[in-house]
């Protein structure tokens, strides 16, 4: 866990420079010679032309987006851009279900190719900020994936390289607005880490001192004004508002926007449902969640067990709060099934679903099955967990020991 808390926030910083690269897509191939006159990423006409392609990527229309990437690869075989974009496409497939490793090899392969092409560009011109930009992004994503997989040596190596090239990419005034997201994340997490993990304070002395509130303001600025990094800033903001900053209504505002803008993105979809539930809008959370479950059943791209576990629980909770326990039971059981599919028996959604099933069964007079579900809560959780405590108290009160 120690390595996770050091490496991952730093990799979040590195990942923040990547959205600028994401934007340069299909229409960049219209002028092969444009590269001679400046960096491809800074072409204003390109920014205007690529909006639809970017929306398609965030909206999980991978087939449409990747066709464009393949054309770019054919047109720019020696430029890192198409290889990076194809790797990034694989990364978004990983984000929605991080335990699924089926996209890892291809993602890492494309990032290796990105590094190879960018290193050649940098070798030809050591002052090439765009090449450094791609190197920082590729190493950053590799490092983040390795940290998710607990490959600490590879993760540390990649993060060091990413930080080196991030620094090298600075100094191009027109790139600075996009790099602000990196500064924001570093400012925030360089303070957050030692406050939440005191044992890591000596290690954090190796890095510059951050300013957490400045980091939050910078994130808000990028979310409002940046062209390239806007969605990525919003992504980090709603996560921070929902957890660390305890501002659920602000998180809801952002997730509502992201879901309306990218309605087929399962990550944004499930977090919109989660924030509706968090602020007490249970009926709306139920309706949104039922749509998620429908899409899982219809096998929409990216809709899988993680989203299903959330959605099933929110539907069950709403039915129960409306006094309809008989309707809530199937959804609690479905949340349990999704948890088993994910091997996530220690998660809160799993444990509280088991707990509620046990209570409903007891109410129905099925004490034997009620005891079995309550025992499962205790077996899969530590004694201090709220679900464990509630299961023990309920069992004792109702003589199910």
UniProtKB/TrEMBL annotation:
Residues 1-24 form the signal peptide. InterPro entries: TPR-like_helical_dom_sf (IPR011990). It comes from the Bacteria. Residues 387-401 have a biased composition (Basic and acidic residues). The keyword Signal applies. The keyword Acyltransferase does not apply. Residues 382-401 are annotated as: Disordered. Keywords: Signal. This is Tol-pal system protein YbgF. The lineage of its organism: Bacteria, Pseudomonadati, Bacteroidota, Cytophagia, Cytophagales.
